[in-house]
Write a structure and sequence with these properties.
alpha/beta; Rossmann fold; five-stranded parallel sheet; two-stranded antiparallel sheet; 8 helices; about 10% strand; EC 3.1.-.-; SGNH/GDSL hydrolase family protein; SEST-like; SGNH_hydro_sf; signal
């Protein structure tokens, strides 16, 4: 009798437990927490507006666009391993030597549960600033005519040829380390517009337009690498039209060769970093 009663009670418990378990599983919300890791070079480290926050020899500051993104998205966790002068190899496998000592490969910050990654990389791999140097003039009103120089064209073509595989391999390594993460590759460009403004952008108007087209090609390479690795491309250059280094202080997102604010030459201003952060937030699926 006692055994029979126990069996009945056990059956009731099972009957009650199974529906409850089913409801609990069905109603369980997916993990929506944002665990964000920022990787890359000096475009992701900040404008130096807050020099006291510089640390680790990487020149990361409080107004870096990834920090703004993390704050905007209310990320559950956020870490930046972006470092000035970084190349693709410094993300994946090679320590980067800085003024305060070596920094380990940035990819070490990724975890299997990382959900969001931004990457700003590629410019230092091809030393893009050296590629456009032949376009600079020593005085206003001159024309270096770099757009017609075969050597300049060849160097640009060679650089873009090697850039794609490097960035693609970097994105593949990131995806392997953080397979659940949404990865955004942030594009280059925006510094140059369709005109020069000596000494900030010390080029003729025609050469400035030529440099813009170089960045169009560069971004095409980056966008292709993103597509082939399931990442999303953030087109900064398209949004930055009218906000180049020749624009007025109320519109300028980037500084030129000679900066007019507390910003590194040829880098985004505080306003530019905020704009980049907005573009990243909008591009996140």
């Amino acid at each position: 009798m006692k055994s029979a009663l126990s069996a009945v009670l056990a059956g009731c418990v099972v009957a009650l437990a199974l529906p409850w378990s089913h409801v609990a599983i069905a109603d369980a919300a997916p993990d929506s927490a944002i665990r964000y890791v920022a990787l890359g070079d000096s475009r992701a480290t900040g404008s130096l507006l807050d020099p006291l926050s510089i640390r680790d020899g990487c020149f990361r500051t409080a107004d870096a666009y990834p920090q703004i993104v993390a704050d905007t998205l209310h990320a559950e966790s956020y870490v930046s391993r972006a470092c000035a002068a970084a190349k693709t190899e410094n993300i994946t496998e090679t320590p980067q030597f800085t003024i305060t000592g070596p920094q380990p490969p940035q990819i070490g910050a990724l975890r299997p549960d990382t959900t969001f990654v931004t990457v700003s990389i590629g410019g230092n791999d091809i030393a893009w600033s050296s590629l456009v140097e032949p376009c600079y003039t020593l005085a206003p009103g001159l024309d270096a005519n770099c757009r017609s120089d075969a050597t300049t064209a060849r160097r640009m073509n060679d650089a873009l040829t090697v850039l794609g595989p490097k960035v693609s391999a970097t994105l593949a390594a990131i995806t392997e380390k953080a397979p659940a993460a949404t990865v955004l590759l942030v594009g280059h460009g925006g510094i140059f517009g369709d005109r020069g403004c000596w000494p900030y952008i010390p080029t003729s108007d025609a050469d400035a337009a030529f440099v813009v087209q170089f960045f169009v090609r560069m971004n095409s390479v980056l966008a292709g690498a993103a597509r082939s690795n399931g990442a999303h491309f953030v087109d900064v250059a398209a949004a930055a039209v009218g906000h180049d280094a020749c624009a007025g202080s109320d519109l300028r997102w980037f500084e030129g060769l000679v900066p007019r604010s507390f910003t590194m030459p040829l880098h985004p201003t505080h306003e530019g970093l905020r704009a980049m952060a907005s573009l990243v937030v909008a591009a996140r699926p």
